[in-house]
Amino acid sequence: MAIGSLILGILAILVSFIPFLNWIGIPVAIAGIVFGAIGGKKLKEQGSSGGIATAGLVLSIIALVLAVLWTLMCGACAACATAPLMF
Q1: What range does the domain containing 49 cover?
Q2: What is the total count of domains within the chain?
Q3: Is 87 domain-assigned?
Q4: What span, in angstroms and rounded, lies between the C-alpha atoms of 13 and 60?
Q5: What is the pTM of this model?
Q6: Residue 51 lies in a domain
Q7: Tens digit of each residue's pLDDT, the chain (87 residues)
Q8: Does the residue 25 lie in any domain?
Q9: Helix (H) or strand (E) segment spanning residue 4
Q10: In this structure, are residues 65 and 59 in contact, taking their beta carbons and an 8 Å threshold?
């Protein structure tokens, strides 16, 4: 679960920077957050270090914020581009 969270976090960050595909990063980042939380909890129960799970969790949270911001900014630009000029 921890490695899955790390992979999903990296993938979500990469996808969040691709224009018009950044919305795909939102569900990927959410899945990474869930996997990181579950993986970290399981690793702590086993008594081992949860560093990879924490890294995946942090990357997924950053990717979620980036993907949401980019999606909102692209939506705002599209709305402004289609608005009639007011002269």
Answers
A1: 2-82
A2: 1
A3: no
A4: 7
A5: 0.84
A6: yes
A7: 889 999 999 999 999 888 778 889 899 999 999 999 999 889 888 888 888 999 999 999 999 999 999 888 888 887 887 777 766
A8: yes
A9: helix 2-16
A10: no
